[in-house]
């Protein structure tokens, strides 16, 4: 039998923080903790006070109510404490709640609390739950201390020493070992740990860890299959969805990756970072409807979150701008109005951020242009140009956004000149160079991009099946949408040259080739299509000599 005095001593050594908006509950919790032997107890009513306490004091045990009235809730508190690393690994965070809805539990679980306490709480339940957690904390404290210090080799050594001495904590120790080996890049030992566990029992965390090792070893097919099986057996295991989406992206299956994240946010809708990931993936897939909805949720969830930032609001404004462009129906007008409202609220909220007002006005300018409000667009653009003239140097993000806006108001020459300047300034930044190329190729809205890409795919498919005339027609129709697209022009040139092989007297085919290549005269050497462009120019010279 456990000595009650030892229990009281264990409670007495720790510091406690109770967070609840009801004073009676705070006082009741303090009384129960004192009766268990605790002495160092802080009581606060809201998230701001809790974060302040944890910033300047080490807290061993946090007991936080999920509902804290207006403003941030318990999930936000835990999220911020984890993000700012204000809780040590040895600290305990218990979510206290009278609410047990799946949405709440799933949202809170994303940040991994150490346990839950369901109201009403009595002394016996509190002591039982805390005693077990404190015992584990005490036994594993040396390991957690070394992990906090990022001394992973020592933490591994301590885990291995503790395994035979503390068999009751074997699961925790094996999970921690696998994670530590993975952090150190020792994939072989990490895999060995996960396999040892899986050979004895199918545990979700071990299956997830084994899949992480497979992904790190670029065994994408095996990892994806493993994760699909894991989700089938445990549909609420959210980490598996994130890892599966990552694996599918690495396979180049971005549409499938998006579908996986859509499933994930259906299961756990309150995870801001996953909503953001879904929004970015949907944008990459040109699925602007899904992107806008995911950005809308990201912005909403960010209201009280440490992860809130101006970029989320800008992205929402941008996606609504894309959707409203050229749409003169009531839905298009509604989206345009929403975009303007989102951006105006953002400017007030993040007024201290550099270039926020400028980037906001650039998107608003495109919104007005897309709705045919040319006078409003030109007025905004005049102010934007004046602001940019007084700026010493334009950062890449704002510069690209400015070029996109110039294209939208049909000032293509100015846009291309600006992109040439940016290409020279950021020639060492592969990501910026790639985005410049993309904008030069497709300086249009997402609907036109989709149309051109579909026609391009049709053209490639027809070319591969030997249907040259059908391919040429598809590429020509795509070029009517994006006439300066480098790859499309070169695709058409290749088809026309192939047609010329069968009909060498048809000089009209070579004339069309020359027109396509002339469009690309200013193609920068850094462009990924430049070598192909040069090769086809030489080939045309040979055919016309």
From TrEMBL:
Taxonomy, superkingdom: Bacteria
Sorted UniProt keywords: Phosphoprotein, TPR repeat
TPR-type repeats, residues: 452-485
Modified residues (4-aspartylphosphate): 65
Record-annotated Response regulatory domain positions: 15-134
PROSITE patterns: RESPONSE_REGULATORY, TPR
InterPro entries with a match to the protein in the record: CheY-like_superfamily (IPR011006), Sig_transdc_resp-reg_receiver (IPR001789), ST_Response_Regulator (IPR052048), TPR-like_helical_dom_sf (IPR011990), TPR_rpt (IPR019734)
Protein's recorded name: Tetratricopeptide repeat protein
Provenance organism: Marinobacter albus
């Amino acid at each position: 039998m456990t000595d009650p005095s030892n229990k009281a001593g264990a409670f007495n050594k720790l510091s406690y923080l109770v967070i609840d908006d009801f004073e009676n509950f705070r006082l009741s919790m303090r009384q129960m903790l004192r009766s268990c032997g605790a002495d160092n107890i802080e009581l606060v009513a809201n998230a701001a006070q809790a974060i302040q306490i944890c910033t300047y004091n080490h807290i061993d045990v946090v007991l936080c109510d999920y509902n804290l009235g207006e403003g941030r809730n318990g999930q936000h508190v835990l999220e911020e404490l984890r993000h700012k690393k204000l809780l040590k690994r040895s600290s305990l965070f218990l979510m206290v709640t009278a609410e047990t809805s799946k949405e709440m539990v799933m949202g809170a679980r994303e940040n991994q609390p150490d346990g839950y306490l369901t109201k009403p709480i009595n002394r016996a339940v509190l002591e039982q739950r805390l005693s077990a957690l404190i015992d584990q904390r005490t036994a594993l404290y040396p390991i957690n201390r070394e992990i906090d210090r990022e001394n992973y080799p020592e933490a591994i050594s301590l885990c291995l020493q503790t395994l035979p001495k503390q068999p009751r904590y074997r699961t925790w120790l094996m999970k921690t070992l696998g994670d530590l080996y993975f952090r150190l890049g020792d994939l072989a030992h990490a895999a060995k740990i996960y396999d040892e566990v899986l050979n004895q029992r199918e545990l979700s965390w071990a299956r997830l860890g084994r899949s992480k090792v497979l992904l790190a070893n670029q065994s994408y097919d095996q990892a994806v299959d493993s994760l699909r099986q894991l989700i089938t057996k445990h549909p609420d295991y959210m980490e598996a969805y994130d890892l599966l989406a990552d694996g599918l992206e690495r396979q180049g299956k971005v549409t499938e990756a998006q579908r996986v994240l859509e499933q994930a946010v259906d299961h756990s809708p309150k995870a801001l970072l996953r909503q953001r990931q879904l929004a970015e993936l949907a944008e990459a897939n040109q699925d602007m409807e899904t992107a806008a909805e995911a950005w809308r949720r990201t912005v909403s969830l960010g209201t009280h979150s440490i992860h809130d930032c101006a970029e989320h609001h800008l992205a929402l404004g941008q996606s609504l701008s894309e959707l409203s462009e050229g749409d003169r129906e009531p839905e298009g007008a509604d989206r345009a109005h929403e975009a303007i409202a989102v951006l105006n609220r953002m400017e007030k909220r993040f007024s201290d951020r550099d270039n926020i007002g400028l980037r906001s006005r650039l998107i608003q300018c495109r919104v007005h242009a897309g709705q045919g409000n040319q006078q409003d667009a030109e007025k905004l653009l005049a102010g934007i140009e004046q602001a940019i003239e007084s700026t010493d140097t334009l950062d890449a993000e704002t510069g690209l956004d400015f070029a996109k806006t110039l294209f939208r108001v049909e000032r293509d020459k100015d846009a291309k000149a600006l992109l040439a300047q940016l290409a020279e300034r950021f020639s060492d930044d592969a990501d910026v160079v790639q985005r410049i190329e993309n904008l030069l190729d497709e300086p249009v809205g997402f609907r036109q991009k989709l149309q051109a890409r579909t026609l391009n795919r049709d053209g490639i498919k027809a070319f591969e099946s030997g249907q040259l005339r059908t391919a040429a027609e598809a590429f020509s129709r795509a070029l009517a949408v994006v006439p300066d697209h480098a790859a499309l022009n070169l695709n058409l040139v290749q088809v026309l040259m192939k047609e010329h092989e069968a009909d060498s007297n048809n000089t009209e085919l070579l004339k069309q080739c020359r027109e396509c290549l002339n469009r690309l005269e200013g193609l920068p050497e850094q462009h990924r299509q430049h070598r192909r462009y040069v090769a086809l120019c030489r080939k045309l010279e040979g055919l016309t000599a």
